[in-house]
Amino acid sequence: MHRLIVAAAAALTVLGGAASAQESIKIGYIDPLSGGGASVGEGGLKTFQYLADELNAKGGILGHKVEIVPLDNKTNPQESLVQAQKAVDAGVHYITQGNGSSVGAALEDFVTKHNSRNPGKEVLYFNYAAVDPAMTNEKCSYWHFRWDANSDIKMEALTNYMKGQPSIKKVYLINMDYSFGQSVRTTARKMLGEKRPDIQVVGDELHPMLKVTDFSPYIAKIKASGADTVVTGNWGQDFALLLKAAADAGLKVNWYTYYAGGAGGPTAVKQAGLEGQVFQISEGVPNSGNKAAMDFEKDFRAKTGISVWYPRAVNEMRMFKAAAEKANSIDPVKVAAALEGMKFEVFDGGEGFIRKDDHQFFQPIYISSFGALADKTKEPFDEENTGWGWRIVSKIDTAQTMLPTTCNMKRP
């Protein structure tokens, strides 16, 4: 962690000097490198640095070297705006972020206002994980592109799977108290009510984001409710500590999650002994069977020490290069125009595309369960040295992931 903070400080020192935009393409990585979200922020930084190295090994983007500039936002919207302004003042034209939709919404608003006030100095925001549906609906912006499925798309897929599980009778909702967590709880209630009106929602809890260190009181409520299933959008330490408390209390229920595969999550699931009882919705699975993706996974793990948490980041960076080549330019305005409607072969196979109407990326998504791996030749990748890994239980093709948008985009 100290190394990452030093790297961030060094990057800001570089930004403070003469800008070298003509020599390289700097991407401002605005995510937590300290505080409660640091574990996922560190993993994201390793991912983007690896992807920059991959591009640079093949000549960069139109001959320009790609550099990742780490900017620690402490998962705080106000701090994110400070870091974004520092980057922009030094000539950075691309920023990327993923952890926290409250941060994402602030950055989306920032780039929209900046670009309207500074023609010729436009900035693009590449969103790899902030999934509040509002960001590509009523708050949509021409300058924002999202490579992750939004929360509603993910819940649509999860509840379609859940409606076919007759053992689900009583559901408990527990989520982080900010825009994304609030969206998960609201949409889960709505969709379960429509698809399985016989299911009881026996608890609906919001808790402070990245501030709870002991989830045992929450677990006690879940046990007392008689729930057989928990639905949560928790991520980072808020998922790992939640499952740790469940393990300590001997809570044995099914979990339907967005981010169980993040830092510390697999270890917590194994410790809780929940084999085959934790499900995750994601755009990729390490043991997918796709040779190119699995070769990438092997090399990535060897060089970074973590799993590929973000196949969507791979898609983002590779599509950035494709769009620049299509436009024959690294000008953000021309890159944005090239990205609109772009089709692309995604990391784990299959075609994805960016919808022009709202800049939401659509791709195949998967529901997988976590447990022991039966065939190490076909399933070589476990998680966090637990001996357990992810196995696909359902695939949703791109066409079936699409939900309508209310976006009324203003174009330059």
Automatic annotation (TrEMBL):
<keyword id="KW-0732">Signal</keyword>
<keyword id="KW-0029">Amino-acid transport</keyword>
<dbReference type="Pfam" id="PF13458">
    <property type="entry name" value="Peripla_BP_6"/>
</dbReference>
<feature type="domain" description="Leucine-binding protein">
    <location>
        <begin position="24"/>
        <end position="368"/>
    </location>
</feature>
<protein>
    <submittedName>
        <fullName>Branched-chain amino acid ABC transporter substrate-binding protein</fullName>
    </submittedName>
</protein>
<dbReference type="InterPro" id="IPR028081">
    <property type="entry name" value="Leu-bd"/>
</dbReference>
<keyword id="KW-0813">Transport</keyword>
<dbReference type="InterPro" id="IPR028082">
    <property type="entry name" value="Peripla_BP_I"/>
</dbReference>
<feature type="signal peptide">
    <location>
        <begin position="1"/>
        <end position="21"/>
    </location>
</feature>
<dbReference type="InterPro" id="IPR051010">
    <property type="entry name" value="BCAA_transport"/>
</dbReference>
<comment type="similarity">
    <text>Belongs to the leucine-binding protein family.</text>
</comment>
